[in-house]
Structure formats: structure tokens, C-alpha cells
Specification:
The structure holds two protein chains of two kinds. Chain A is α/β, with parallel strands linked by helices. Chain A has nine helices and 17 strands. The chains are: A alpha/beta, B mainly alpha. Chains A and B meet through α1, α2, α3, β4 and β5 of A and β1, α3, α4, β3 and α5 of B.
Chain lengths: 427, 176
């Protein structure tokens, strides 16, 4: 690798040499000696300049990371003669950090990145430049190091969630209306062939048939599970600033976009249902591929978080002719910004087909302080049509939840509403 | 407010000196160097101070261009025009000229918002100090050769300055 003398070092050498010559020419050793030290130091620094490469790499960190923090290690190697390495860290083409660090052979520097974004993203891009002794020489820039990561959506706890009108199966965490075992008392019934002897209620039998001409058994409700389909609308990925909605400039890196909110809300809802023993599946309105079928357990949550993380808007989404087919009796939770009619139309069609549908509005809280008059008018038009759309959903008996306004409270309210509903199959 | 946001990217390093501190130090050093050079031949006035500060700020604004070396050259020319200087003035100028160039070299490597690890400066300070010991001895010889009037007190001050720089050279950590 070539180490070249810096411009400031060249200027120092030239001026120092001129001072020496000037002092000699005018017979002034006091002037000549002024250039002596810089000249000697420059020659010495140039003579002991390094000759080998500076390298930089970005490696995964061994430290456990917290939610919202990405960790990595910057590994620098430099010749021992180098004064240091100038490290520049960029993220999304913006310079974030620049520091001249000492490197004796090899050094590992922990790097932490705060992010509110989820999904695939570049962790950082790191440049390195070797600085020679006395900062008088510099190496060629090392090959930049970068690292891509997939950030899984974090979850937030939800106390209670609504259930579908029909439960499935004979096992689960919820009590169904069918007779069976495991639930609370359904009724007391005369003994029939097939009833277990341990189900006989002797007190009731003694009261109703003291002569034991008939036996009575206690019957219980069966247990059942709910099937929930999460439907994410990944066609939109808009931030809080409406000026960026055109797509000409990206949303602020410090702002969570609607897709980040959708990923987090879907993961939270999935965790809440799976924690109760229900079955949860995932579909994407923008993708023409098979949905993630409903399943249960911890691994299903991992699958859903992974699928949510890789969900991203890709090109122009194909227009759906009809709503995707879902398991019968499933609760449908649609996560969308509802900035156009498609998601609302699909949600309404599912409701007409008999599903209980919850529409989760994932549009972030809009920031209007930086908008000009034209943008304000445009936003007002968009907001009015969006409000009409959400009102239409409510009219179609689709329950709407704003994720930006205490979603746990809103979902718990929906859960209580289902309990009060006449004929509701779930408790 | 964006100012209250935590840094998005943090690289954990040792103690760091901001580059702007190095540049401010460079401004102070260049100003003192120019005033010492002027003081060798003329009485320093207020406008000298103003000009020296303006020149120092100008050269340290873009240190990577080599403009700091021009300030050193200017100090040498002023010294040449002012006639033979005293021993202490020459020794001070030798020290300041070298220090200014050294500080500006590091300040020129990074932007205003960057930082320089203290370990980098500490590891590199030994070389200039060793060179400086020889330069100060040379300065004494040069003043004696040039026939300037060197009194006993000047000789003791020179001895003390060289001794102090030599002590610093002995104390600063050696590169491993």
C-alpha cells in the first residue's frame, strides 16, 4: 500500500527549508534554526512511515443486544508504526461518527446503532484511513466494511384481545359452548351410557333420586382454540412527515414508519394470541404468495416475526381481484394505513363473509409543523378521505383500532364487547 | 428537538479530544508565535494582536491546505526583518513553530465534528519532543554564532528550557 505525504506536511517541509535557506543567505542562524526542527521531524516521520495495509471489518458482536440497539464490532488492523487510523462511520449515506483512534496491530471497537426501524437494513458502512507518524503521511483508504442485518419487530404486551365468534377444536385455552371436558359447569344431566362414573354428582342424585332410580352427572363445557389471521398491508411505508409520502425523499431515520408500526403491532397481537394457546397465521395483502398457515406455539411466533421482518413494499403491487381466502370462523386482524380503498374493501368483504374483522390503523402520528400551505391542503384532502374510509369500515361492522392511541386499551375494550354480545361463542 | 436526540451511532473508543479543541489550540499557538516574532523587533500594539488573531483564525480554518506553514514562514520573515533576536525569543519561536505544525497536522486530518483519541496524541508526542531538544541546543548555538548578546541569566534560562524539554522527552511513554 502507498503511504503519501499530506499536503500540510509538504507545506511544512517547504517552508522549513526556505527558512533555513533564508537564514543562510542573510547570515542569520537564528532564522535558519526556526526551520530546523520541522525539517528534521519531517524527514524522520517520512523515513519511518509504514508500508503495509490498513484494513477494516465489521463483525457481529458477542454482546447481547437490547431492543432498538444493534451491536457490532469494528475490527481495525494497522501497522505498528502508524500514528492511528481515521475511522468514519456512515449510515444511510450520512456521516455519523468520525474519530482518529490508536491501533497497535489490531483493535476491536464496539459499535452500537440506535434504530426504531425494523426489517432488512444496513447496520453501518465504515471507512478507514491510516495516519502515519506525526500525521505527516496517510495511507490509501481501506476497502469499506459494511454489514446488513434483519431487525425483527419487538412486541409490546397486550392484556386482553378479542376472540372470533366461533372457536375450533376440542382443546385450547378458551371455553366453547359445546359439551365436553375441561371447562366450567354446563349442566347436570341424567346418566346415560358413555358417561364416566367419576362424573356422577352424588349430592344432586341424593336430592333428586333418593331411591337411586336415576343417577345424575355433571357435564362441562369443552375447551377450544381461536384461529386468528393477521393480514399486513405492506404496500405503504410512510413516515410521520407527509412531505415524504411522495417517496422523493426517505422518511427521517429517527422516525418509525407505518410498516415498522405494522410489524410491531402484528407481532404484538400474534404474541398475545399465541400466549393464550391460539393458532395464528399471517398473510400479506401486497404479496401474491401463500400465506403463513395458522399455527401455535413459540416457534410460530418466531416464524411470524421473521416473515414480518422481511415484509417490505416491492415495486407496484398487483391488484387483487378478490379478498384472500381465510380459514372459516377465523378472527381477521388487518394492519394498514388505509390511505387507499383496497385494504378497507378487503376488510369489509371478509366481514360480509362472516369473519370478525379488526382493522388496526398503523399510520404514525402525522407531523404537520414543517408543511407549507399546499402540502397542508393536500394532507387535509387525504385525511378527509381516510376518515371517510374508516367510518365506512365502522358502518360495515369492522372494529377499528388506532395503534398510535393506547392499542392495549382499545383491544381490551373489544374483547369485553365480545363477552357481552348475545350468543357469542367465546368467553 | 434534534439536539436532544441520542447519537444514532456510537463507537466506543478511549478518551477523545474534539478536533475543534485542537484547532482552537492551534489558533492560540499561531497567535502567540506571530506576536513573539513581532516582539523581537518592534513594540507589540493592539493592532498587532488583532492581525495575529485574524491570521491565526484564517490559517486554522483550513489547516489541511498547508496554510499554517505559511504562518510559520511569516514569523520567520518578521524575525529576519526585526534584526537579531534574544536567545529566549529564538528558543520560544523554535518551540512554537514546531508545535504549531505538529498540532495543525492532526487537526487537518479530521473534520470539525470529529475527535482524536488522546492515546494517539500521547503516543506521538515523544518524537517531536526529542527533536525539540536538539533544536533548542541548536538555537543556543545559533544565537551565540550570530553574535547576539547572551547574558548569564539567558544562559541559565536556556539551560532550564532545554532541561525541561529533555525531561518531557524522558517522561513521555515510549512506543511499544
Amino acid at each position: 500500500m502507498t503511504w503519501t505525504r499530506t499536503r500540510s506536511a509538504w507545506a511544512g517541509v517547504v517552508v522549513a527549508a526556505l527558512l533555513v535557506l533564508l537564514g543562510a543567505a542573510f547570515g542569520r542562524p537564528d532564522v535558519a534554526v526556526l526551520g530546523a526542527a520541522p525539517l528534521v521531524a519531517a524527514v524522520w516521520d517520512w523515513w519511518r512511515r509504514p508500508t503495509t495495509d490498513v484494513t477494516v471489518a465489521l463483525e457481529a458482536s458477542d454482546e447481547p443486544s437490547e431492543p432498538g440497539v444493534l451491536l457490532a464490532d469494528v475490527v481495525l488492523t494497522a501497522p505498528a508504526d502508524a500514528a492511528g487510523v481515521l475511522l468514519r462511520v456512515r449510515r444511510r449515506h450520512r456521516e455519523m461518527s468520525e474519530v482518529l483512534v490508536r491501533v497497535d496491530g489490531e483493535r476491536r471497537l464496539p459499535l452500537s446503532v440506535l434504530t426504531v426501524r425494523t426489517g432488512p437494513q444496513d447496520l453501518a458502512e465504515v471507512d478507514a484511513l491510516g495516519i502515519g507518524p506525526g500525521a505527516a503521511s496517510a495511507s490509501e483508504p481501506a476497502v469499506p466494511a459494511s454489514r446488513s442485518v434483519l431487525v425483527l419487530p419487538a412486541t409490546r404486551p397486550l392484556d386482553d384481545v378479542p376472540l372470533p365468534p366461533r372457536l375450533r377444536g376440542l382443546t385450547g385455552a378458551h371455553e366453547s359452548r359445546r359439551p365436553g371436558e375441561g371447562g366450567s359447569l354446563r349442566d347436570v344431566h341424567p346418566f346415560t351410557p358413555g358417561d364416566r362414573l367419576r362424573r356422577i354428582d352424588w349430592r344432586v342424585t341424593a336430592r333428586r333420586a333418593p331411591d337411586l332410580h336415576e343417577l345424575y352427572v355433571r357435564r362441562e363445557h369443552a375447551q377450544a382454540e381461536a384461529v386468528v389471521m393477521l393480514v399486513v398491508d405492506s404496500r405503504d411505508d410512510v413516515g410521520p412527515d407527509p412531505a415524504t409520502w411522495r417517496g422523493s425523499e426517505p422518511p427521517d431515520a429517527a422516525d418509525a414508519t407505518s410498516l415498522d408500526v405494522a410489524r410491531q403491532s402484528a407481532a404484538s397481537v400474534a404474541e398475545a394470541f399465541l400466549g393464550r394457546g391460539d393458532r395464528v397465521g399471517l398473510d400479506d395483502l401486497a404479496a401474491m404468495r401463500r400465506p403463513l398457515p395458522a399455527g401455535g406455539g413459540r416457534r410460530q411466533l418466531d416464524r411470524i416475526r421473521q416473515a414480518l421482518a422481511v415484509t417490505a413494499p416491492v415495486g407496484e403491487p398487483a391488484r387483487r381481484v378478490r379478498a384472500p381466502q381465510l380459514p372459516s370462523g377465523a378472527l381477521v386482524v388487518v394492519f394498514s394505513t388505509f390511505l387507499d380503498d383496497d385494504a378497507a374493501a378487503v376488510a369489509a368483504s371478509w366481514r360480509r363473509a362472516g369473519h370478525r374483522v379488526v382493522a388496526v390503523d398503523v399510520l404514525p402520528r402525522v407531523r404537520t409543523s414543517q408543511l407549507n400551505d399546499r402540502q397542508r391542503i393536500a394532507l387535509r384532502i387525504v385525511t378527509m378521505s381516510r376518515e371517510d374510509r374508516l367510518a365506512g369500515l365502522a358502518d360495515a361492522d369492522v372494529e377499528v383500532v388506532q395503534w398510535r392511541d393506547a392499542p392495549a386499551v382499545a383491544l381490551a375494550r373489544l374483547a369485553r364487547r365480545a363477552q357481552r354480545r348475545t350468543g357469542a361463542g367465546a368467553r | 428537538m434534534s439536539g436532544s436526540r441520542p447519537a444514532e451511532v456510537v463507537v466506543e473508543t478511549g478518551r477523545v479530544v474534539p478536533t475543534w479543541v485542537l484547532r482552537v489550540a492551534g489558533v492560540v499557538l499561531v497567535t502567540v508565535m506571530l506576536l513573539v516574532a513581532v516582539g523581537s523587533g518592534w513594540r507589540v500594539g493592539a493592532w498587532h494582536v488583532v492581525v495575529a488573531v485574524v491570521v491565526a483564525c484564517a490559517v486554522m480554518l483550513r489547516p489541511w491546505t498547508g496554510s499554517v506553514a505559511l504562518a510559520v514562514g511569516a514569523a520567520g520573515v518578521v524575525l529576519l526583518m526585526g534584526g537579531p533576536a534574544s536567545l529566549l525569543t529564538v528558543m520560544a519561536l523554535v518551540l512554537l513553530a514546531h508545535t504549531v505544525l505538529w498540532v495543525s497536522s492532526f487537526a487537518a486530518r479530521a473534520s470539525w465534528s470529529a475527535g482524536v483519541e488522546v492515546a494517539v496524541l500521547a503516543g506521538e508526542v515523544r518524537g517531536p519532543v526529542v527533536v525539540q531538544v536538539g533544536a533548542q541546543v541548536l538555537a543556543v548555538v545559533a544565537v551565540l554564532v550570530s553574535g547576539a548578546d547572551v547574558g548569564a541569566s539567558d544562559a541559565w534560562r536556556a539551560f532550564a528550557l532545554i532541561g525541561a524539554i529533555g525531561l518531557v522527552a524522558a517522561v513521555v511513554p515510549r512506543p511499544r
